[in-house]
Amino acid sequence: MARRPLPSILSTGSAHIARSRELARTAADSATDVLHPLITITRGLRRLASAGRRRWAETPRDRRGPLLFLAASSILVVVLVPYGPLLAVITLMAAAAWQGRDRNPPAPEGPDESQIQRLQVLYEALVPYFSTADDPAPLYAHGGDWEDVFPTQEFDDSGRVARLVIRYPAYFPDGEPGPRARIEQLLAAKSGRGREYHFDWDEEGNELTLTVLTALPTDIAAQRFVTAPGETVLGFTDPAGVQRTLPLAHGEDRRDVPPVVWRTGIRSTEPHLLAVGRPGSGTSTLLRSIALQALEHGDVLVIEGGGTGEYACLAGRDGVLAVEIGFAGALAALEWAAGETERRLVAANQARQEGRPQPDDTKHPLWILLDRPTAFTHLADADGRKDPQSLLQVPLRHGRAAGVTVVVAEHFDALDSLSDAVLQHTRARVALGPASREQLETVLGAPPHTTPVDQVPSGRGYARLGSGPVHRLQVPATPDPYDDATSDAHRQAVLDLLPPRQESADTDHVPAAEDPRTPPMPTEQPAITDPAPAESASTASEPGEPVPVRTVLTKPVIVDPVPAKTVAAKADHAPADPAETADANARNPETVGAEQAS
């Protein structure tokens, strides 16, 4: 079937509409210029009328009669005087024109002397980078005019550059990161240190736009964010960086702030996260914020290698499987996590093969939060034991399919001690605190489009999710509520988000088939049981019966293994059961007679 052509009004309508808009805009500008005196006189008459009404309202009632008589006498005199009405109209128009004038001071058409000097300094500083000796008509030359290369300039109240558009020659290698970094560093130094600048390179138009970024808010406390299950708010960024805002409570007011949302789950492309920073940069704050959000829909296992007790407020809470700070407990907890990941994979695979929905205990999210795991690596090397990081291979590789999310926080100086599995599978990255461009590019995989500063508040940094853009980040204030230096408002905000404490943890065994959620880990050192073999999952007699899963102890204690000989000796000398002894004597009459003779 032949395709019918579009009507001419649709095919050429955009051009007609654009031409009509241009004509209408030109006519409006011309009418404004012609009618400007009439608009000014009308504005002045309105102001005079408003002043007369105010004067009449302020006049006392006993004086209004004489005022009316005086006004009427003045009008009569004007009427009787030759050419009085004409002179009165001319006087009224002149007064209206004076009152209707634009009283706003005219904006300066260009920069002042100090601003011109700043622009000239910038121009001279860019000459060695944007000029060559072979250029017959150089755009940049010593003693040249800056007006040709800075078409747009904006300044703040202090007289420093707030926004600047810079033209550069076409032969400048703007596609290479090295020359770009040199230009950005130069502009940041000459425009004023201590501020964050955003650089937008227009390679097609050979223009660079420098913009001063406003400081991100640091007064946002921890709270319940309006997110869907599987979404975690890492922090907040610039409005131009994301296309979404979240309503936040700030005291009694509410405001919308653009967030950096990290999506986890089976359909996530970045299921695990790595946060890097210096001491005091806010990585522990980020992990506490993630833990409080994860406890709303899942279970959390916290392992702290620093041993400072930053997560003591989570111990014993509902949904918190364990908070481990010792090497033995961390090793046992990670062994359990690896076994739990395998169990979930086996159960989910068995359900798919039998055509049944996936069990609920395999879909319940499990979060593993590790703060400074390299501290355990040094202990493992010293004692000749297994490195706990080696146990993260299974949760990192198969965590997305099993509903397991791993979050690792480490310092910059210990990045080399992280295992290859952690570095390869944590594609969501966060860098907090002051850092150089080389460090940021090493962690994030790409340089940021802003200039990092030396002095930043806690929780300030950059975030990059997978291969996406680099965002500025400010982590919500989530301090340790047990810290004396914490403010009362932030302490109460964190305490309000903590789940209630567990009522009872004395049960020895909890069958996983009765509880759809993952069996809770102990608050002390957990004992690890071997995962159920794949053959046991296929012993269900009917397709509708639940698949048996392993049983996990809730409060076991790890003890040293007892030798087999000692156990056998104890069993030989153990007292026999009286009922069993009587039954054996009844079956052996010779033994009874020997005992009576003795």
TrEMBL record:
> Where does the chain bind ATP?
G277, R278, P279, G280, S281, G282, T283, S284
Biased-composition ranges for Low complexity? 531-544
Region listing for Disordered, in residue ranges: 445-486, 499-598
Keyword line: ATP-binding, Membrane, Nucleotide-binding, Transmembrane, Transmembrane helix
Q: Where is the FtsK domain?
A: 257-441
Composition bias (Basic and acidic residues) maps to: 503-517
Presence of keyword rRNA processing: no
Residues spanning the membrane: 67-98
User: Would the keyword Membrane turn up in this protein's UniProt record?
Assistant: yes
Q: Which InterPro entries match?
A: FtsK_dom, P-loop_NTPase
Q: Where is the signal peptide?
A: none
Could you identify this protein by its name? Answer: Membrane protein
